[in-house]
Amino acid sequence: MNYADYIPVWNKLDENQRNTIISSSVRRTFKKGAFLHHGSSECTGLMLILSGQIRAYTTSSDGREITLYRLFDRDICLFSASCIMNSIQFDITLAAEKDSEVVVIPSETYKKIMNVSAPLANFTNEVMASRFSDVMWLVDQVMWKSFDKRLAEFLLNEAAIEGSDTLHTTHEIIGNHLGNPREVVTRMLKYFADEGMVRLSRGVIEITDEKALEELANA
Description:
Elements: H1 15-24, E1 26-30, E2 35-38, E3 46-59, E4 65-71, E5 76-77, E6 93-105, H2 107-114, H3 118-144, H4 147-162, E7 166-168, H5 171-178, H6 182-194, E8 198-201, E9 204-207, H7 210-218
Antiparallel strand pairs: 1-6, 2-6, 3-4, 3-5, 3-6, 7-9, 8-9
């Protein structure tokens, strides 16, 4: 792998720093459904996503989940190493949605180099700020956007990710992504089906009127 594909300031590190990161990194594979990181008590390390699809989510005190963002090929995850950032505790779980392969840079290694490398520290701050922006966007969506619009947008995004209008998923999984009970998802999907926007069958949602979903999502 080429670390410069993940860390743009790679060539601004000296040779010893680059070798330290390479020699301490660990390549790991995870099957679909496996957990990569769980909770703020862990500081797994900086993750570079080589392949697959990873879901980052948080869980409320009553057990409800909501997806914060997804990670794909060539993405980088800093929240799994939040201990490298002073005063930041972020309770996040990472789970593989597809078979995935990652490279983990130990937190202590990354932090030691970041503390003496201004380019790496600046890059880290930029990535962390970008992720916080993603989270704040989600908060804005949950607070101010109606559920029908959020669900329509979710279905369209899933179709784009999978490259297909036929989605193999369940109402419970969708509810976990959006932070809503399964029953709420079921009622709204039935409304979508009655309006001719989707066709429902067991474990499958087929988008039948993409334009109508787009109009709803953007209304």
